[in-house]
Amino acid sequence: MRIYSRILAKKLINSCFKGKIIMLVGARQTGKTTLSNTVLEHFGKEIHVKKFNGDDPIDRELLTNKSLTALQQLIGNANFVFIDEGQKVGTIGQTLKLLVDHYGDSIQILVTGSSSMHLLDATQEPLTGRKYPYTLHPLSLSEIEPIYDPLSITKQQEERLIYGSYPHVTQLPSLKEKVQELKEITSSYLYRDILEFQQIKNPDILHKLLQALALQTGSEVSYTELSGLIGIDKNTVEKYVQLLEQSFVLFRLSPYGRNKRREISKLRKIFFWDTGIRNTLIQNFNPLSLRNDAGRLFENWMIAERMKKNSYEQKLVSSYFWRTYDGNEIDYIEEINQEKKGYEFRYKKQKSTRPFEKGEVQTSLITPEQIKDFLY
């Protein structure tokens, strides 16, 4: 099977042995363990590794609510500590603080987690100034096709829009196997941590919400309408959406507003980090030629790819959409240092894609032919 070179690999390696804990978060099945092992293999015989897995109850017990002396005995002469699925360790923040304060840069600690609400949130206060946080997403297009090749990108495009970019899914040879794997990810992994840690008693409600959101991809979402559709109160809908965002299933775009009365300021747009997951939720794997949502899929894919790129390049970018009551609209706006750039997405080829002004924002039209300039 193909081994992908992940963009974060060099960043993680260069962050080692600098007195900081490396925290790698991201949805399950995105390749966090594989990437971590790539880092360990880079150092090879230079390091002595001690590994723990938070999914293992014995390992959890070894790391939970322990004194520094007990942790020192546990680590022994290791100079690299790898904790997989660290969000499962009940006192992960306290444990990591004891270790990094005592050892400094003499050992490296690498922790992965599949939920920011349980790993990053749990370590926010005890590890202030003591960690390098990174987020790993499903494969980006530039990881699958590192060198831009128009023919390869064209061939990739339909598969990415329909089946997404989870590493194992991309490696399976048949479409049937891809669908089976996506269904397994969706049913077994997608929101496992939400159900486990938030003690949600009715997973069917969560699944119905995800299906409703999948059908509204790229549209402005009303929590009030969703609450009526699903049969739960508005506050619960908002809480579940936040949990799904913290578990890297989806992300929200806020409206860009300048406090003008004609700006729409309350609704959010919701997109999925992986279009394959979105299609699995609505059980639609039809070819793009037979779909009426190809344009929305392309918009979702492009925005998610752009946000992966910004995340990996560690750009301080604010992302929005823009729509006014009088019909002006921009699909996606990026603001960096008060400079704004807008993008509109069209799946079908356009006669002209020259930049244009819209609402005083310089806007570019992105079609499949403009992917190189937008993502590479």
TrEMBL record:
Residues 19-144 form the AAA domain. The lineage of its organism: Bacteria, Candidatus Roizmaniibacteriota. Residues 192-345 form the DUF4143 domain. InterPro entries: AAA_14 (IPR041682), DUF4143 (IPR025420), P-loop_NTPase (IPR027417). This is ATPase. It comes from the Bacteria. It comes from Candidatus Roizmanbacteria bacterium CG_4_10_14_0_8_um_filter_39_9.
